[in-house]
Amino acid sequence: MTNVEMGAMTDIIGGVESPLLHVHKNRCVLVRHRHGRCLRCAETCTTGAIATTDDGIAVSPRLCIGCGTCATACPTGCLEAANPTDEELFGQVEASIRKSGGMAVVACSAARAAFAQADGGANASACATWTADGVPAVPVECLGRADESLVVQATAQGAARLVLVSGDCATCAHHAGGTLCDEVCACAAALLEAVGATSPAERMGAEEALAAFAWAADAASPQAGSAPDAAAPKAGPAATVSDAASSEAAAPPNAAASLSRRDPRVRTAVRRSAPKSKFVHVQADGTLPHFVPERRLRLFNSLKAMEPTERGAVRTRLWGSVAIDTDLCRSCRVCTVFCPTGALSRFDAADGSFGADFRPTLCVQCRLCEAICLEGAITVSDEASTDEFLRGAKRRTTMPPLEWNPSGPTSIPTRMARLFKTNVVQDPQVTLKEDEVARLREYAARRDEERRSARKAAERRNR
Description:
Layout: H1 2-5, H2 9-14, E1 21-23, H3 29-32, H4 40-44, E2 50-53, E3 56-59, H5 69-73, E4 79-81, H6 86-100, E5 103-107, H7 109-118, E6 129-132, E7 135-139, H8 148-156, E8 161-166, H9 175-194, E9 201-205, H10 206-212, E10 215-218, H11 237-250, H12 255-259, H13 264-271, H14 294-305, E11 313-315, E12 321-324, H15 334-338, E13 344-348, E14 354-358, H16 368-372, E15 378-381, E16 383-385, H17 386-391, E17 395-398, H18 411-420, H19 434-462
Parallel strand pairs: 5-7, 5-8, 8-9
Antiparallel strand pairs: 1-4, 2-3, 6-7, 6-10, 11-16, 12-15, 13-14, 14-17
């Protein structure tokens, strides 16, 4: 991507800001490092508002319909849907669950048009509140708006059924959203299965939903907090944020709000986030600012609230398992500098050892660390441990003290030492000090002892 390689992504992604979509530019993977490989927003955008071209990435905010599919695909929370906001959407789903005693229905614009046509078109107004068996259908532009945190939080709140109704996705211009919704449902089901729960989410076409439920509409009493019509004019992003803030302040506290504050360590990570109005380039420790997407907090707290007894491994697009090959690593710790959430952080111990800590709870599987590692020492797996995620576990990788500088005088011996897995390789052109040799040998002995301990622990677990 030409314009991305030139480092222009800050202005590019910022150009899609609109009343329908909020943008946190400093969260974008390609803003944090131009060699990142994330283009998920462009790959899933249903209208071409964010697209890839021969010249790179192009944005056309006038094409945005506020479907929120790009926000669902974005791993770091750079893009936030505002049509409706997460608070509005989750609040409506929660209200439906309470009113019906366990059921919520989410319907896309194409499905609602089908309901209106079946009703003779009498209540086709954009402000109509459609109900399924008396339960208000939560309106969204596209089912790509729904993400795993919505499904898991609905489960934690006691939903027995979460019906996602769409038009014919195969013929819809926004079919990418329907495809992503299928992936979300499968991922949410795997997550819930890993903790011993069953997903309440089910997909339905509009015709199937018409046959399954009795639909009605009341144009006189629109649903509070419903999604605005994409064609309706708005005052601008500031007015949207202000309205959302005032409505949130007026609303009574709910389970969604309380769940997002349950874990103090994750909340600390959120407090470290840069303010919206200020782009902080570097923190005091030399790393870029860290943040945790609100949706990740909802997911984490909803899973914890269910108090799961089973915590198995799961394949997911939401968080990963990071492994660092210390035989390839050259200890630069650049991965900790650019990690968006602080899932990879550096440590320096009193005994002189150093390296990186990995916290699965904070990983969002953006794969930036994997993309920018100069030695290819980092791999990110999409199979992760739910137990590690929920416990807030920390995995420590002690890095070798060998520093390989391709243009430095010790490049050959240090590189060969890695290749032969030995303490030091003699080179007539390089003289290593005695304390350096001792330090290398001490590190090798410590690493061998750690590996022996790990093998013994594995053997005890397998007995």
